[in-house]
Amino acid sequence: MAVKTTFDLLRLQGDALWAGGEFAANILTGPILDQVAPSGDGRIPVLTLPGFSGPEFSLRPLNRFLNKHGFVADSWGLGLNRGPESMDYIATLGRLLGDRIKMMSDEYGRSVSLIGQSLGGIYARELARMFPDEVDRVITLGSPAHVLKDQQHLINRGVGFAMRYFTGRPMEELLNEAELEALTLHRPPPGVPLVAIFSPYDGVAHADTTAIPEEYLDLNDGVPRENIEIICSHIGMAVNPLVLLAVADRLVVERDDWTAFNARDYVPEPLKGLPKLFFPEPAMLARSSFGCRRAAAA
Fold it and tell me: Which residue has the higher pLDDT, 275 or 43?
């Protein structure tokens, strides 16, 4: 137990150091990213939700990037994400943000895209479940939306310590509560496109919990769902230039003509093999009516 805890804390520290490197990479590659990243039309509303224990300004680089590229992005406005003291908080979140989402949708004449990092992504999925007519799509960044009560070992123990500190309750207790109340947290929100960006080297949440399971990619309902694997940290996802590129790409893709993300579209012909270093597997798109289409191998 002590060995596992020590190892997890070291992994968490390493993830944070990696995130610092990604922040530096964001600054250094900014001019290149600005040239190649797709842009919106200035009227695509986006609401971003920070990860657990993440302050609101942690998503400022993401919002700044999106606003610079023709999207209208804003943070959730609730400050530090302290986590849920109980599963009732999901309903509370709907009351806190429901009017905001509807106002954004009315103001821009189109539904709102939600982007959530880690726990913020789980919240985004639930908001889409509550407001399917006002939510256009959900993009999650390293969100452990598929962790079960017997899979706590797939989440860094440091998160459990932080959860107890912020909420006063152990993570196992919250997961048990969700199961006892038969909440559909693990099932994708019906009728709303879902993109899960995840890393095989995530130092906080295992990819088995952050990628959309095949059983949900197999749902025959014609709704786009997509896994995008990117080599990145957990903490630094919202500043990683490659993640930002994928996010912008998924925000502009049409719901009715959804094709899998392909990083090769953004590099010149002599460098077409380069994305393979950072995108190990082609993006995996929902089978349903999309014919199990993958992006071309990098």
Answer: 43
